[in-house]
Design a protein that fits this description.
With 341 residues, the protein is an alpha+beta fold. The chain is built from 15 helices and 19 strands. The strands form five sheets. A five-stranded mixed sheet has the order 1-3-2-4-5. Helix 12 packs parallel to helix 15. The longest helix is centred in the last third of the chain and has 14 residues. The protein starts with a strand and ends in a 6-residue tail after the last helix.
């Protein structure tokens, strides 16, 4: 059996049942990762899947990675033999880490297993920001809020997009610049039981309000104008990134939409340690291995993937392996077709 399959077979949770079935039904299951696009006009990367020996089973996945596809009557020779147990337990049912040399994978596990290292999900909660249901209505410019007479107590500064986030820290000075530029960064935040001032009722009943309340999210919540899940995170985490995701401290105490992830540090954990660790080159590699590629060379981090990012402890091995770590991150960026200018 032979198929062209989406490259998601190397990382997607929905690919796991397929591979589980195949290794239980075939003696050979061979996945071939192809770096150069099979279909240049599509954003979708494609790999190859071979299976042979139906009626048997196997305890190994065979894996090859090739620069480009060349016609052949047989799969590539000398594939890597991956124990099913390692695929499950070491790499969370992912094949993408096997794009890297064995020495780099060993290094990664050595650092991840160090007693001083932590997964991000061990020390913080990662979730999506709020979903307003009608962004243009619920996000106001300062001039609009003033024009309608909406009180400041029902407005909260928000991060609507990762594009405007500064590096490292969102401060009140940054918010002030946004406000002076009259950017629509004020979220209309009305508690469910709030008494509505006349000015707010007028805004809710405006033509824009009539249109907003008919959107799917708004018409399925009570009351329609109260945006749920508004939180003030400790950090913002970009989930669609080029070279690497950014972690930005929320000194301004803003909230955020679902355009970025909200990171809340567990009680008793030093938030500063997280930001310091995030700047380590090893974290860039961890983001590549725990996240997944998207079309256009982008790297995406779902909350469950972000929770697995390794924040390394002060292991001496890292200082001796910086070149290898940098090369590994570059390899992974190459496989998602991101070119560093």
């Amino acid at each position: 059996m032979a198929f062209v399959v989406p490259a998601e077979i190397g990382h997607a949770p929905y690919a796991v049942p397929l591979l589980d079935y195949l290794v239980g039904q075939f003696h050979y299951v061979h996945v071939v990762a192809v770096k150069k696009k099979l279909f240049p006009d599509l954003s979708e990367d494609c790999w190859l899947l071979f299976a042979d020996g139906f009626g048997s089973r196997t305890e190994h996945l065979l894996f090859s990675c090739v620069e480009r596809f060349d016609s052949s009557a047989v799969p590539p020779r000398d594939p890597l033999r991956i124990p099913i147990r390692d695929w499950r337990q070491k790499w969370n049912c992912r094949l993408r880490p096997y794009l890297l040399p064995s020495s780099t994978r060993t290094l990664y596990h050595h650092v991840a297993g160090n007693s001083a290292s932590r997964r991000l999900g061990e020390i913080a909660s990662i979730g999506i920001g709020y979903v307003s249901g009608a962004n243009d209505f619920f996000h106001l410019r300062p001039s609009e809020a003033e024009g309608w007479g909406i009180p400041g107590s029902l407005l909260h500064p928000t991060v609507r997009s990762s594009r405007g986030l500064p590096s490292g820290n969102l401060t009140s000075q940054t918010l002030d610049r946004w406000m002076r530029a009259d950017v629509p960064v004020m979220l209309l935040r009305i508690p469910k039981t709030a008494q509505l001032p006349v000015a707010v009722r007028e805004y809710l009943n405006s033509d824009m309000g009539q249109k907003a309340r008919e959107t799917y999210k708004c018409r399925n919540r009570r009351p329609w104008y109260s945006v749920p899940d508004v939180r003030i995170p400790d950090y913002f985490l970009t989930y669609m990134s080029g070279i690497s995701p950014s972690l930005v401290k929320n000194s301004a105490r803003a909230t955020c939409s679902n355009a970025v992830h909200a990171v809340q540090v567990h009680s008793g954990i030093s938030a500063e340690r997280i930001l310091d660790a995030w700047l380590a080159p090893f974290v860039r590699l961890s983001c590549e291995l725990e996240g997944h590629p998207l079309g256009g060379g982008m790297l995406k981090l779902e909350p469950r993937e972000a929770a697995r990012i390794v924040l390394p402890g002060p292991a001496p091995i890292l200082s001796d392996s910086e070149a290898e770590i940098a090369e590994a991150a570059s390899i992974m960026r190459g496989w998602r077709h991101y070119a560093v200018s």
